[in-house]
Design goal:
With about 375 residues, this protein is α+β, with helices and mostly antiparallel strands. Helices cover about 30% and strands about 35% of the residues. The strands form 2 sheets. It has a 15-stranded mixed β-sheet that branches. It has a 4-stranded antiparallel β-sheet with strand order 6-5-3-8, with no helix packed on it. Helix 2 (about 95-130) packs antiparallel against helix 3.
């Protein structure tokens, strides 16, 4: 009887701790610390970038204006040359021969003119005395005038021959940098298929950068300038902010301005050509380089920038996690504008002062309570210059 009473009591003692553990609930974990950024309104300058090509202020081709064999190259390739500096010499013997021949013709014409003048001087007084006929006088006058014309023609031919002789020496037309010569001593130049362009001299103290705007971009810019240009000063200020981004990503220190817009939009490409000039005092820029022209488009007043790492993208839909006043996370779709540095300009979906999750996006979801930790992240746009 005692054994029967002991077994239920033992079973009760064994099951009692298990029941007590089931009744106790584990304490809830604290909300996780989640870094957030507080959105601020600010003026955001927007820029457009266009691929451009660099040209010299003057790129002048050096050509042989007469045919002949190249006799001398009188410069160092790739060096600075001065205006009037001798660059090339061509064989001059054929042209010297032509000059000598023309000089003999001038001398012969001068002799004939002297004879005709003497004859006229002798016949004219006799004609006044009626000692010779009028036809004799007319013949002497005609011979004199013909001799004058022959002398003038011979002198003109002599000048032309001397000009041709002068073309055997080729001089630099400007101060600038000369390139690699395309003809060597002994080459026959001045006629195809031989090299016609011997070299190119470029003036690079100021360079020109050509780039293209699409038709829509041109219309937008033209309307904005027409609206803002109450006077010429506004337009000049806007033109002066052109910047140049070089191939290595560095920003060229000198500013430029648009000085030429083509007369037409190319119907084959739908783009219009613009040309900007940039000072090049250090000689860093050379013709043929490619660079990006950075153009100020507009300034968005009280714009909101959100760091790119805060943004989720799914099938073209962008969203961020916003922490509300009760520390509850809410996923919200946003409409974004262009990228500005490491941030996006927000068009719709966010307001100034809201907190957006910056890190730990994989740890949060809609409705989760978190402990926001404000992170000081600079979203300041590039300075407007």
């Amino acid at each position: 009887m005692r054994l029967k009473n002991f077994i239920p009591l033992l079973f009760l003692l064994l099951t009692l701790p298990a029941c007590q553990n089931q009744d106790q609930t584990a304490p809830a974990p604290p909300p996780p610390d989640i870094p957030v950024v507080v959105l601020e309104g600010q003026d955001v300058p927007l820029f457009l970038e266009f691929v451009g090509q660099v040209y010299g202020l003057k790129d002048i081709a050096i050509r042989a204006r007469v045919e002949g064999f190249l006799e001398g190259v009188h410069f160092e390739e790739g060096s600075q040359v001065e205006k009037g500096q001798l660059l090339y010499t061509l064989e001059s013997q054929p042209f010297e021969e032509a000059v000598a021949n023309r000089m003999s013709q001038v001398a012969e014409a001068q002799t004939m003119l002297a004879k005709a003048s003497s004859d006229l001087g002798r016949i004219k007084p006799l004609a006044e005395l009626k000692a010779v006929s009028q036809s004799d006088l007319d013949g002497a006058v005609a011979q004199f005038e013909a001799a004058q014309a022959a002398l003038e023609a011979a002198q003109a031919n002599l000048r032309a021959s001397r000009i041709q002789l002068g073309y055997t020496k080729i001089y630099s037309p400007i101060n600038g940098i000369i390139g690699k010569t395309k003809a060597k001593v002994g080459d026959f130049v001045g006629r195809e298929p031989n090299p016609v362009i011997l070299n190119t001299v470029s003036q690079t103290d100021t360079v020109l950068v050509e780039f293209f705007l699409t038709e829509n971009q041109y219309l937008e810019a033209a309307r904005r300038y027409l609206d803002d240009a109450v006077d010429g000063k506004m337009a000049e200020e806007q033109q002066a902010i052109l910047e140049l981004i070089l191939a290595d990503g560095s920003l060229y220190p000198e500013k430029g301005r648009v000085d030429f817009i083509d007369r037409e939009v190319d119907p084959t490409t739908g783009a219009i050509l613009l040309q900007a000039s940039f000072p090049n005092p250090s000689g860093l820029l050379r013709p043929g380089q490619f660079a990006k022209v950075k153009v100020h488009a507009e300034t968005v007043k009280d714009g909101i920038l959100v760091p790119q790492r805060c943004v989720n993208e799914l099938q073209g839909v962008f969203s961020v996690f916003v922490v509300g006043a009760d520390n509850t996370v809410k996923e919200r779709q946003v409409t974004l504008g262009p990228a500005v540095g490491s941030a996006y300009l927000v068009k719709e979906g966010l307001e100034t002062g809201e907190q957006v999750v910056y890190e730990g996006l994989q740890m949060v979801r809609d409705g989760v309570v978190v402990k926001p930790v404000v992170k000081d992240i600079s979203t300041n746009p590039p300075e407007e210059k």
